[in-house]
Structures are given as C-alpha cells and as structure tokens.
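Retry 2 of 3 after timeout on previous attempt. Resubmitting structure tokens to design endpoint.
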C-alpha cells in the first residue's frame, strides 16, 4: 500500500522521537535530499508533548543568519540569548543558578565579536568568508566558563582546552535544563547545507567538539545533558567536506560523518507514483478553492479541472523524473502547470487539449528545474553542439558555465530526449534539428506567457 507524505513523516518522526527519548544523549543525523520534508519534520517533532516535556528546545538555522552575521557568531548570539532568558523560563527558581546562566550569557556574547570581526575583515580584503576551523570559543572564554561552573574541589583542571570547555558546558547545560524543569536540552540544526562550505564545516566542527554528545567522553555518573539533531542533505555535506579536506591524503567524507553521528534517520525523496498523484489532487483542490473564493470558478474552469483530474495518472508517469523527488520542486511544477492551464478569465480563451497535457507539463518542468539551461542553450541554437559535445565527452571545459554543469545530468538528458530534441544513437547524444527548433519555439511561447 502506498503511503502518503504525512504517513511517512509520522513514521520517521516516531522513530526520531524514540531515539531522542532513550536513556542516553544522542547525536542524530536526519538525512534527506533537499525538499524531502526535513524542516517540516523538525516542526512536527517540537510539537510533540513528550518532546516538549523532556527537553529545553533550541533550534538554529545558520542559513537564516547569513544576512546579518557569520553562522558561528550567529549561533553564539542565539545561545547567549537563550541563557539570558533562563530566568523568565524558570519553573524551579534558583537565584544562584539563574545568575550564573545570565553571567555566562554575557561571556558567550563576547565570543561573537572576534568571529564577526574576522568575517568583516575577510569580506573587505576579498579573503575566504570564514577562517577555516577557527576556534568557536577562545581560551579566555573557556577559562571564564570553567571558573563560573566548576568548583575547585572537583579536582584539577583538565590539560585539554576542549575537555575543560566541555566540563563547564556540561554543568551549564544541565543547569539550563534543571531550572526549566526539564531533563535535558535538545539542539535542532537545520539548513547547514545551504551555507558556504567553509562556514558549514567550521560551524559543524565547532558545535560537535563543544556541544554534541561523544560516545568516548560519556561518563555513566554524569550523562551529557544535550542531544543534537542535524538535518542535512548528506551528499551536499560530503561535497563540502571534500572541498575542505581535498589536500588530505585518503580523506573519506563518509568515515568522517560516521565518526560524528551515532544514529541516522532518513527521509526518502518522493518516489511513489501514488504519492505524486495525491500531490496533484491536493494542488488541484487548493486551486479550485482559491478561484472560487475570488469569484473565478466558472464553467470553463470547472471543465478544465475535470479534464486535468482525468489525466493525473498520465501526468504523473510523464513527470516520473528523479529531480522531482524534491517535494518542494514537485509542488512548484504542479502549480506552474495549473497556472498555465487555469488562467484568469479572459475573452476568447480556448480549452486545453488533453493530448497536450503531458508535453506541456514536461516543458514546464524544464522551465522550472533548469531555467539557466533553457535560457543559455534551448533558446540559443548555437549552444546545442557545445552542450552535446560535453555530454558525449568530446570536449573539455573548466569554465563552470551552465553547459558544463548540466552536461552530465542524466535527468536533463532524459527529459530532452523525451521532448524529442535529442536522441541517443550508438552511445552518442545527437541533436534532432526539427524537434530542437520546435522546442525553442515552445519555450519562447512559455516565456512570453510569463513562465
């Protein structure tokens, strides 16, 4: 039986919640391609009563901070604000603990300043956006946190700065949870894979070494008081790691991530035709409701909606491409189709031919998913031969342009073949001149209509 996306999210959410509510803290990789529903899942997770009862919830998206600050400085500023607000959230008020949390908020806020200054310096000098692997907390900040949270009678200071920092943070995070009547802290990190590689890896390394539970450092008598969920597109993150460590012999991104995460929970892309049909039904119903509310649901629109509904199964098969495993893109393509087929009331409009639905849907997919290719190759006939030369391995290029970026894209090549513009003959892609010319005309027509 085909599951819809809501069922899939509920199943994965239950598995993720069970992992987090276990006896020990955990470091979870929530893996899924872009548009698979990771952010939606995190939103559902924090609404679960058992999660809210158990954890102080921290949510951070470094991508959201890029407009105002370097991501690591943004996290420290956010974390500082959480500590500063501990008093207003306290259920078991302890003046001494609250004052220490507020003092630590000021200490951590100061750590933002050198990171922000370095980011500005790099921007002004044209250097790298972030000095790679610069320490998240300075020795001075670590010393202050240690003095605040670790009594001298607990024994000698660790020689390692990182162990010293973690010892202080263990006490601080435990206090943050305790004053709010919770058992632990849960940090949810999203959209790290949408940052620049150097920023993403610097943030990931810094947070892992300071805040994430680490199996070899967990002591049964003093469990680590924070669990983490990192929602990422794993292939993108592996590319980021490869970019940063390309000079390290035999570096393996997969082994690096295996070291960091003790659990992995995965969200699949959209692969079920049945699930895709449900998307069409949902979007068609939503569009009819929108048109009805604005007084535009006339007999013509009703008839066209019925015709589209009859063709949904055929449309889903026509759009069975891996790129539409991205749920967000899939919905956008459906909406583009409905925008094209259900225009506002205007004189003289004609009914949409059902025989054209599938082809028009593919044209709109090409426009939506590959706009750069459309505008630099499809409507520029002189660029087809360079693109196909690259696709066939007959030419080499290092300019990073649209043609080279898409020359190895199996999804795009298959789509162009299904549209008749190219064909695969004896192991080589060839241009079908007349069909490529027709495709150009169709693309220009779509662009003239605003698509």
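Retry 2 succeeded. Sequence:
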């Amino acid at each position: 039986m085909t599951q819809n996306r809501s069922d899939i999210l509920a199943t994965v959410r239950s598995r993720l919640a069970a992992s987090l509510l276990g006896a020990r803290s955990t470091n979870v990789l929530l893996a899924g391609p872009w548009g698979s529903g990771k952010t939606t899942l995190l939103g559902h997770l924090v609404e679960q009563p058992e999660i809210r009862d158990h954890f102080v919830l921290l949510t951070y998206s470094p991508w959201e901070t890029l407009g105002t600050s370097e991501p690591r400085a943004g996290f420290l500023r956010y974390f500082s604000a959480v500590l500063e607000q501990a008093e207003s959230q306290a259920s078991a008020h302890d003046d001494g603990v609250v004052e220490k949390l507020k003092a630590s908020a000021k200490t951590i806020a100061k750590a933002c300043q050198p990171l922000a200054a370095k980011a500005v310096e790099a921007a002004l000098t044209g250097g790298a956006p972030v000095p790679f692997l610069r320490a998240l907390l300075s020795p001075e900040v670590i010393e202050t946190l240690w003095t605040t949270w670790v009594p001298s009678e607990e024994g000698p200071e660790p020689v390692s700065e990182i162990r010293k920092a973690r010892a202080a943070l263990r006490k601080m995070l435990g206090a943050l949870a305790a004053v709010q009547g919770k058992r632990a802290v849960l940090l949810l990190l999203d959209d790290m894979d949408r940052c620049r590689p150097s920023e993403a890896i610097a943030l990931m390394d810094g947070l892992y070494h300071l805040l994430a539970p680490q199996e070899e450092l967990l002591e049964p008598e003093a469990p680590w008081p924070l669990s983490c969920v990192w929602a990422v597109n794993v292939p993108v993150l592996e590319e980021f790691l490869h970019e940063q460590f390309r000079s390290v012999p035999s570096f393996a991104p997969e082994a690096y991530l295996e070291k960091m995460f003790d659990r992995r929970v995965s969200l699949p892309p959209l692969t079920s035709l049945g699930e895709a049909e449900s998307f069409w039904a949902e979007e068609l119903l939503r569009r009819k409701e929108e048109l009805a509310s604005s007084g535009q649901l006339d007999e013509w629109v009703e008839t066209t909606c019925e015709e589209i509904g009859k063709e949904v199964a055929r449309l889903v098969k026509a759009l069975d491409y891996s790129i539409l495993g991205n749920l967000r893109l899939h919905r956008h393509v459906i909406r583009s189709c409905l925008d094209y087929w259900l225009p506002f009331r205007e004189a003289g409009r004609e009914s949409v031919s059902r025989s054209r639905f599938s082809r028009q849907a593919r044209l709109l997919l090409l426009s939506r998913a590959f706009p750069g290719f459309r505008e630099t190759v499809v409507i520029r006939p002189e660029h087809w031969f360079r693109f196909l030369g690259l696709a066939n391995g007959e030419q080499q290029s290092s300019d990073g342009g649209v043609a080279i970026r898409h020359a190895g894209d199996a999804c795009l090549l298959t789509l162009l073949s299904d549209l008749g513009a190219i064909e695969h003959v004896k192991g080589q892609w060839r241009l079908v001149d007349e069909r490529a010319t027709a495709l150009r005309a169709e693309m220009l027509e779509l662009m003239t209509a605003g698509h």
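Attempt log closed. The CA atoms of residues 280 and 286 lie 10 Å apart.
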